[in-house]
């Protein structure tokens, strides 16, 4: 509806002829269960005019025009206002400051665009489209109806509250539906709500096309409808014809209290939830005002005359509607007696139990009144206009009234009314549930509310226990993605079309319908369900596991065997066999072999920086000592037989001191390599998660790969030299010939370490360490048994061969 308010001076004889107000078609007034919008407006103006504390020097009047919910009709009515205003202003010195209306967002936008150059403010009581909040396009618009932006937030919170992730959204083609659906789709995304069919916007006369869309959404069971009451009648008619039942309707404020829908479609609408605009419990004096109408009061009002004739099924003679009726049923009616009274019948006109739209009209009229009062209270020199001037309440421009309308702050029936920078009031909605009473009538039950002024998280309050559902229980939602998975949207499809994808390796999700998985920290790993991060398994070669125990036992056993052989050799040091085999070098070799066996123990246990710095140099130096002793031993035997040749004095270069020096000289090179290694890039402990993500491998990294392979390379050079010496000594007498035993030991040594290299490179974790220990032990046992086992056999089991005569046989 729209109206135009004019002000005049008290006692002006022409006041009633000079004040205009426009009202839209009658049918739209049934949208919230009362049709007393016009009556409420006239009551509010009458109440204000009778007050001595509000506008004591001004009186308000009105003139009503019917927009018929049609833009061309509304614009024609607007033109009639303009022409009336011009004449009125010329004769009675009145101006047109404001228009109240229209109920439709589309008509309100059309009026605003037409009034743009005049800058006449328009205050709507039911236009809720968020597009009207654009002050750049509609700078003269205000309303007592909350913007759809608040309603959309409330609807999104409602759907999220009940866990409905799969909903249908429909609306008949209009500015209201188009902007509302667009806002809902944007708002609902943050709550993970899926609009199964994003938009069904079809012209009003194509209900069948719309219902085909509704049928496809029947599986969601939750339908949000941005339509008016008249459009809902057509939609519900088609739904009934298609026999679609069990839908959970979510009503926008446009039809949340449209009780007339219940008469024909109650079975389809049971359990409907919707946000209705705030209801006034009572407007004192309004009911008496509405029921005080008499036939003599309504002859000149086509709106009231038609209402009176329909209510009492009679004919008013001389009413403005007489010429517009046909000669059929209308002429068959009896003339009205003039004694009819609204007190004797029930009529939605006088029903004041659902004062929602009427309450907005009441506040709109009081908004204009308080703005005029603020204008009247302005003090010269302190005004809001240029040079501190004030506007004259009797002669002002419409744009001057806009200033006071935007700053109005007043109380209406105990409610504080104020507006934001866009001219929108603070939103408050009642959440109503359509319930069937025992007698079959509709009972609108308030089951919650939405207060936009409340802190985030507390704006929506719902009492679930009193809600009546369509089929006796809450509507089911779409299957959710469980913890341990995430929602993967399907490209090019609506938001509800998604797959549940298990979280990737190293990621978890502990919420239902999680949009993304969270990566675990470096020292944790997902459990099997991938909904919790647990500490990673720490891996290293431990003394407490079977493999570590076995290697430890073998290492100690090897060292014990070496020391036992050393003891045997020491006990038989004076025998020809021990003396003939370079006793001193044999003792050194056995000691170094024992050390070599014990070095394997450094590779077992949790790595630390100091242990890593000892482990690799100890390995390199101990093996180098063993090979150097073996090399010196072989060289002495070879040179001893060469020195028997006439004129040879080679043995003077291979005395005991030179033998010891050669051992330590050969080892010194390895010591230098290890020192360079430790000083430049020493080995250190490291936590490795690259090989197996669920395991932290505690390992010693070499630091410098070059130095590590130099250590192994130098050992290889010593072994090759030793093997070459043994090869050259292959023709020496058998009783003195250790060459074949050294050759066998070197072959075992080469086999072990050549195999070690690819295995070492291809393994990781504790198995790499085990391979390294195995290589050390295998090569040490090869040297120990190949060189000393035959001698121990003779010393212990064949003592008769341990004689000078037997040794000197050849």
UniProtKB/TrEMBL annotation:
Bilayer topology reads: Multi-pass membrane protein
Lineage, top-rank taxon, reads Eukaryota
Per the UniProt record, one Pfam family is: NCD3G
Q: What residues does the G-protein coupled receptors family 3 profile domain cover? A: 547-810
TM region positions = 546-572, 584-604, 616-641, 661-680, 706-729, 741-761, 773-796
Q: Which keywords describe this protein according to UniProt?
A: Cell membrane, G-protein coupled receptor, Glycoprotein, Membrane, Receptor, Signal, Transducer, Transmembrane, Transmembrane helix
Q: What is this protein called?
A: G-protein coupled receptors family 3 profile domain-containing protein
* Organism annotation: Lates calcarifer
């Amino acid at each position: 509806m729209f109206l135009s308010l004019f002000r005049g001076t008290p006692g002006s004889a022409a006041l009633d002829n000079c004040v205009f107000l426009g009202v839209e078609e009658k049918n739209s007034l049934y949208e919230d269960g009362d049709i007393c919008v016009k009556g409420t407006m006239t009551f509010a103006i009458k109440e204000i005019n009778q007050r001595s504390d509000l506008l004591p020097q001004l009186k308000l009047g009105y003139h009503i025009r019917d927009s018929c919910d049609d833009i061309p009709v509304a614009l024609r009515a607007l033109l009639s206002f303009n022409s009336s205003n011009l004449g009125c202003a010329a004769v009675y010195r009145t101006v047109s400051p404001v228009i109240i209306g229209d109920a439709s967002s589309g008509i309100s936008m059309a009026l605003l665009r037409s009034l743009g150059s005049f800058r006449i403010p328009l205050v709507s009581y039911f236009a809720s489209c968020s597009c009207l909040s654009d002050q750049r396009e509609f700078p003269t618009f205000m309303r007592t109806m909350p913007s759809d932006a608040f309603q959309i937030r409330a609807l999104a919170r409602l759907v999220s509250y009940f866990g409905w992730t799969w909903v249908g959204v429909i609306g008949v083609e209009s500015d209201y539906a188009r902007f509302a659906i667009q806002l809902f789709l944007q708002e609902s995304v943050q709550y993970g709500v899926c609009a199964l069919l994003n938009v069904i916007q079809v012209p009003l006369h194509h209900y069948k096309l719309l219902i085909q869309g509704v049928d496809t959404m029947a599986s969601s069971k939750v339908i949000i409808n941005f339509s008016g009451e008249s459009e809902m009648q057509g939609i519900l008619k088609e739904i009934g014809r298609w026999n679609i039942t069990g839908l959970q309707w979510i009503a926008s404020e446009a039809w949340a209290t449209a009780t007339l829908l219940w008469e024909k479609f109650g079975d389809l609408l049971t359990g409907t939830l919707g946000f209705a605009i705030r209801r006034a419990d009572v407007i004192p004096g309004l009911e008496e005002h509405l029921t005080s109408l008499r036939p003599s009061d309504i002859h000149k009002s086509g709106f009231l005359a038609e209402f009176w004739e329909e209510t009492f099924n009679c004919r008013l003679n001389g009413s403005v509607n007489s010429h517009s009726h046909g000669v059929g049923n209308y002429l068959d009616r009896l003339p009205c007696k003039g004694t009819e009274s609204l007190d004797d019948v029930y009529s939605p006109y006088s029903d004041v139990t659902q004062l929602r739209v009427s309450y907005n009209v009441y506040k709109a009229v009081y908004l204009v009144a308080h703005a005029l009062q603020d204008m009247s209270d302005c003090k010269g020199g302190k005004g809001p206009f240029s040079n501190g001037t004030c506007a004259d309440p009797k002669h002002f421009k419409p744009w001057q009234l806009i200033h006071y309308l935007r700053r109005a702050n007043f109380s209406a029936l105990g409610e504080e009314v104020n507006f934001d920078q866009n001219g929108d009031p603070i939103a408050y909605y009642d959440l109503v549930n359509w319930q069937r009473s025992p007698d079959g009538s509709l009972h609108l039950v308030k089951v919650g509310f939405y207060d936009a002024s409340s802190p985030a998280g507390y704006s929506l309050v719902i009492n679930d226990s009193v809600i009546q559902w369509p089929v006796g229980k809450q509507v089911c939602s779409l299957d959710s993605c469980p913890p341990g998975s995430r929602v993967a949207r399907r490209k090019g499809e609506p938001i509800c079309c998604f797959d549940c994808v298990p979280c990737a390796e190293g990621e978890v999700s502990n919420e239902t319908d999680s949009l993304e998985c969270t990566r675990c920290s470096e020292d944790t790993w997902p459990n099997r369900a991938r909904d919790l991060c647990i500490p990673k398994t720490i891996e290293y070669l431990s003394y407490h596991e079977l493999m570590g125990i076995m290697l430890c036992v073998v290492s100690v056993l090897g060292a014990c065997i070496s020391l036992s052989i050393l003891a045997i050799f020491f006990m038989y040091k004076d025998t020809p066999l021990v003396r003939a085999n370079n006793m001193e070098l044999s003792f050194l070799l056995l000691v170094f072999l024992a050390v070599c066996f014990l070095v394997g123990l450094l590779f077992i246990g949790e790595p630390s920086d100091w242990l890593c710095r000892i482990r690799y140099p100890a390995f390199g130096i101990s093996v180098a000592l063993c090979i150097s002793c073996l090399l010196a031993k072989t060289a002495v035997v070879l040179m001893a037989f060469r020195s028997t040749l006439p004129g040879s004095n080679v043995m003077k270069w291979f005395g005991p001191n030179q033998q010891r020096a050669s051992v330590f000289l050969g080892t010194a090179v390895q010591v230098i390599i290890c020192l360079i290694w430790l000083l430049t890039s020493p080995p250190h402990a490291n936590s490795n998660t690259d090989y197996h993500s669920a395991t932290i491998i505690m390992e010693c990294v070499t630091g410098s790969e070059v130095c590590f392979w130099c250590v192994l390379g130098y050992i290889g050079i010593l072994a090759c030299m030793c093997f070459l010496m043994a090869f050259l000594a292959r023709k020496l007498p058998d009783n003195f010939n250790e060459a074949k035993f050294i050759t066998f030991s070197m072959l075992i040594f080469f086999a072990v370490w050549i195999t070690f290299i690819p295995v070492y490179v291809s393994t990781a974790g504790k198995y790499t360490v085990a391979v390294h220990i195995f290589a050390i032990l295998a090569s040490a046992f090869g040297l120990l048994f190949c060189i000393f086992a035959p001698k121990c056999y003779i010393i212990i089991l064949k003592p008769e061969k341990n004689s000078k005569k037997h040794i000197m046989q050849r």
